[in-house]
């Protein structure tokens, strides 16, 4: 398979990093985390620290941020934003409810920012959730950290010389995902519907499915073009070709899983056939992912 060695190595390292996330809110020394600012295009930036990538739009209208990582990092994030603008954060747009993207909501909400998310993401934040696989419990947010503005399918902001579309392209990573598209600048933040760590985390206990993610990736690819810069949920800046490669990986693996189902293979027999060959090593992490994905097709 093409790029097997590169892909398997990146999958292994990135999955290990992602699977450690449920412990971060408790065990990580956030004092050691540094926030890195990366220019994207026009007045749009990406901040990286610990957790999901943060998108930032600055301009005369104020500051929009997309996701806000962990609460203990808020002051560092604010300091990084202050290097870009002397205006406060006006809106925080959440790409979904997971804590590594939204734990800073309470701090930014208390500072006066309006939090925006898809309807189901707010519903998830209103009550205690348990994340698939890790069993990590995410407690309900206090009122100040909840989205005050929600939408079902899409809505538009006119902000900082951009028509900013916040859209739900379908259930995939969770049942409340959002992508934020800056039309004039041709930049999109995909949240965790598209990531750069290989096999994606799918929160099936909270509405996510592999089929839904594949469908959403088709929808996103139709929304953008080859010149679009993508801020993924995790990882480096990307483009449409990267997103299509990621989508094709999922399509191929799905096809192999469906074939295993048609052949009547047991879970162990399916794993022995290595449906993720060429994309991820046959190790415990990959096998756990495949077991969960196979469950979508086999009762």
Explain what the structure shows:
This protein is of the alpha/beta class. The protein is built from ten helices and 14 strands. It has helices at residues 4-19, 21-27, 74-82, 99-102, 105-110, 119-126, 210-223, 240-262, 267-272, 284-294; strands spanning 36-41, 44-48, 54-59, 62-66, 89-93, 114-118, 129-130, 137-138, 149-151, 154-159, 162-167, 179-182, 187-191, 229-232. It starts with a helix and ends in a 5-residue tail after the last helix.
Give a summary of the structure in a few sentences:
35% of the residues lie in helices and 21% in strands. The chain has 299 residues and is an alpha/beta fold.
């Amino acid at each position: 398979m093409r790029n097997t060695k590169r892909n398997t190595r990146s999958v292994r390292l990135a999955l290990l990093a992602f699977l450690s996330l449920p412990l971060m809110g408790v065990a990580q020394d956030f004092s050691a985390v540094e926030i890195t600012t990366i220019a994207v295009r026009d007045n749009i930036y990406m901040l990286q620290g610990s957790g999901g990538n943060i998108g930032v739009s600055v301009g005369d209208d104020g500051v929009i941020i997309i996701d806000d990582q962990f609460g203990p990092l808020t002051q560092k994030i604010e300091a990084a934003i202050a290097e870009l603008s002397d205006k406060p954060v006006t809106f925080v747009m959440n790409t979904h409810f997971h804590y590594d993207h939204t734990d800073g909501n309470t701090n930014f909400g208390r500072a006066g920012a309006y939090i925006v998310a898809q309807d189901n993401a707010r519903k998830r934040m209103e009550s205690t959730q348990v994340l698939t696989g890790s069993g990590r419990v995410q407690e309900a947010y206090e009122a100040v950290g909840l989205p005050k503005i929600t939408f079902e399918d899409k809505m538009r902001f006119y902000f900082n010389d951009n028509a900013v579309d916040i859209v739900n392209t379908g259930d995939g990573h969770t049942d409340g995902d959002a992508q934020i598209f800056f039309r004039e600048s041709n930049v999109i933040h995909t949240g965790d519907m598209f990531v750069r760590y290989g096999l994606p985390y799918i929160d099936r206990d909270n509405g996510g499915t592999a089929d839904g993610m594949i469908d959403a990736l088709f929808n996103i690819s139709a929304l953008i073009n080859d010149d679009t810069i993508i801020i993924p949920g995790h990882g480096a800046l990307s483009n449409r070709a990267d997103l299509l490669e990621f989508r094709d990986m999922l399509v191929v693996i799905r096809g192999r899983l469906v074939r295993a189902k048609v052949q009547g293979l047991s879970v162990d027999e399916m794993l022995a056939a290595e449906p993720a060959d060429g994309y991820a090593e046959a190790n415990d992490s990959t096998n756990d992912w495949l077991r969960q994905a196979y469950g979508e097709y086999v009762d």
